[in-house]
Amino acid sequence: MLRIHAGCAGLAALILASPAIAHHPSGVGSTGGAGPIATIPATTLEEGHSAAAIFFEMVKIDAFSDAQLKTFAGRHIHAHSLDAILAPTLVYAYGVTNDLTIIGRLPVITRTDIREGHHSHGPAGNTVDERGDSSGIGDLTLLGQYRFYNNKATRTDVALLLGVKAPTGRTNEYDKLGERFEAEFQPGSGSWDGLFGMAFSQRFTAWSFDANVLYQQVNKGTQDTDLGDRFNYNAAVSWRVTGAQATPVGRMNLGAMPEPMHHGGPKARAHKHTHDEPPAPPPGPALDLVLELNGEWHAHEKVAGVKDENSGGNVVYLSPGVRLSMGKWAGFLSVGIPVVNHVNGVQAEPDWRLLTGVAVSF
Question: Which residues contact 96 (CB under 8 A, 6 or more apart)?
């Protein structure tokens, strides 16, 4: 199954029974004015500055009906379904240097109304097991963002992304029937995974273009299960509708961070500006419109070395969004509609995705 990864919300912009594609949350991405929400930009926090965010992600699944699950069971297809994935997430970022930002991300993941078909040769025929919800703390992601190219004349940034996902999440959740959920439905994976990728940002006056790729090398975790490698790819166009125009200074990848991230942050206001330093923006709210393409390819899952044919695939969301920022604070909202839903085998597919939250810089 292609699981939507609770992977780097702008950190790894990052979402989906045994249809895996739709069963993991993704990630959320940028911070600052005139920048993306779920795409990871190449710009970083200034040295000594911090940003924090709490965001909420919901993926609504086009669930299988009981009749469909019984039909699959009759064909000896071990299909699952669920109603939605909910993932409130805490994110914190710190500027180690002007070109190196470290980001931590910890989600709480809930999968609701998990059901599966059960094959039977008895008089009752095939049945559907109502397994209930699985919920708990997910895996911690740490991502380093190193900006190795920063051309202030052309307002172009390029950054290297390197990170690790630690197995901090719960892996022992049980259903209403007293059975342990399979690894794909556990909040945590039980595996140590590596992350590596690149990010690109190009600034204009009121516009910006951002893109990133991020690969997650997934290893064997709980229940002798390899959930499958993931490859996230994102692109975004952002437009500052009202408020001060963004500068290329001090942005980072948290997901809709406040305007000060673009102008040296709140600490910079205590210093006198030079001719090389952009002035602080005037007070007042700023409104950004964002349009993104957010994609995730997911490899097949393997259990005890055996590949699950009903897993893996590719999903791409078209995601319009909006961000309102004022001072140190910002709020954001993005709605994703799948424009590509290519899944392997029999899997419930995502119907839509919602990302929303608030962020603060300090």
Answer: 47, 102
